[in-house]
């Protein structure tokens, strides 16, 4: 079996912390790149094949949140946020805009490496899932390669945004997405419209894929939506 060395981008403005993280990761066999500010991080990401990002939130130019948003426009690369922010709301916001996990400063380098391994294992497993997903004995199928959805064997006509929303929910069964998170992931972080636009997309999707016997998209009142197999 071929073993691919993973490229990890460390985005941290404190050189001493970056050096420690880099040393621990390279000891584990990872290849590392280091950026001391957000702009350099974006440059490296655009120029290199990056498999994982460790991202400090407090950077001297672009904030870690802004870097995360820019990367999420074009990639679902795993992101582990480093934060000194103690407020739960700050950490939840980081997860909502696309981070896979976070670790608070000060942290154990060994724990950080363990988190990296765990996230990579999870994303690797997700990556080898079947590309054709089937629900309720063929009532609903989605072909991720063809970007094709079928209801009882017939192709469902979805807009690009509706497909993007449905495929996001369907690949994360049971996970609750807030409206704000869906706006960022489906409409883009720079979308300035009303977040209830997501409700309209969900309503349209439901009309196309659900019936009296099968209800797939559940409303989690006060939060958002999740996909469930009836």
UniProtKB/TrEMBL annotation:
GO biological process: regulation of DNA-templated transcription
UniProt KW keywords: DNA-binding, Phosphoprotein, Transcription, Transcription regulation, Two-component regulatory system
GO terms under cellular component: cytosol; protein-DNA complex
Role according to the record: May play the central regulatory role in sporulation. It may be an element of the effector pathway responsible for the activation of sporulation genes in response to nutritional stress. Spo0A may act in concert with spo0H (a sigma factor) to control the expression of some genes that are critical to the sporulation process.
Protein name, as recorded: Stage 0 sporulation protein A homolog
Membrane spanning residue stretches: none
GO MF term (any one): transcription cis-regulatory region binding
InterPro entries given in the database record: CheY-like_superfamily, OmpR/PhoB-type_DNA-bd, Sig_transdc_resp-reg_C-effctor, Sig_transdc_resp-reg_receiver, WalR-like, WH-like_DNA-bd_sf
CDD domains for the chain: trans_reg_C
Any Pfam family the entry gives: Response_reg
């Amino acid at each position: 079996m071929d073993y691919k060395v993973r490229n990890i981008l460390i985005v941290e403005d404190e050189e001493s912390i970056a050096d420690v993280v880099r040393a621990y990761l390279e000891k584990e066999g990872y290849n590392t790149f280091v950026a001391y500010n957000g702009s350099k991080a974006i440059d490296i990401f655009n120029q290199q094949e990056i498999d994982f990002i460790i991202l400090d939130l407090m950077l001297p130019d672009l904030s870690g949140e802004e870097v995360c948003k820019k990367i999420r426009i074009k990639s679902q690369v795993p992101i582990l946020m480093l934060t000194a922010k103690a407020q739960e709301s700050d950490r939840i916001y980081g997860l909502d805009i696309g981070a896979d996990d976070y670790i608070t400063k000060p942290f154990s380098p060994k724990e950080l490496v363990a988190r990296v391994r765990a996230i990579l294992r999870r994303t690797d497993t997700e990556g080898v899932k079947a590309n054709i997903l089937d629900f309720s004995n063929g009532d609903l199928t989605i072909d991720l390669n063809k970007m094709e959805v079928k209801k009882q064997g017939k192709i469902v006509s979805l807009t690009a945004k509706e497909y993007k929303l449905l495929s996001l929910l369907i690949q994360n069964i049971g996970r609750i997405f807030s409206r704000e998170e869906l706006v960022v992931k489906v409409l883009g972080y720079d979308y300035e419209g009303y977040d209830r636009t997501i409700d309209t997309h969900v309503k349209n999707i439901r009309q196309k894929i659900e019936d009296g016997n099968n209800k797939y998209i559940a409303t989690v009142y006060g939060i958002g939506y999740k996909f469930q197999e009836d």
